[in-house]
Design goal:
Blueprint (H helix, E strand, L loop, with lengths): L11 H13 L2 E2 H7 L6 H13 L3 E6 L2 E6 L3 H17 L3 H9 L8 H19 L1
Antiparallel strand pairs: 1-3, 2-3
Helix pairs in contact: 2-3
Length: 131
Amino acid sequence: MTRKPKAKSLSRREREIMDILYKLERASVGQVLRKLADKPSYSTVRAQLRVLEEKGHVRHEEHGLRYVYAPAVPRDVASRSALRHLVETFFDGSTEKVVAALLGGEVARISPEELDRLAGLIAKGRKDGSS
């Protein structure tokens, strides 16, 4: 049975571990440990992977005497869920507030091509919404 990850946000270290697992696709505790920047203990990484598994973000398989961990959901699904949580938590569920925050004062940094693509996405959203 695959658990759906809880919307609860991940700690900085948990996000770092998830990023490593998404890049490697599957990894042992030792492999994750080698990729971490400030080298916590082996037992700390093992405990954090166990917590991530309890939260439903990772799963493990036994390979001999070691566990090999992998993300429980595809990265795009996890990112959409995290984005939904972010929008609900910090922007009252408003897409307009998110876009305004992203563009706030930074419009000059957006190229004309990016603005055209954004306009196209908005037009497509309008078309799809009226269907």
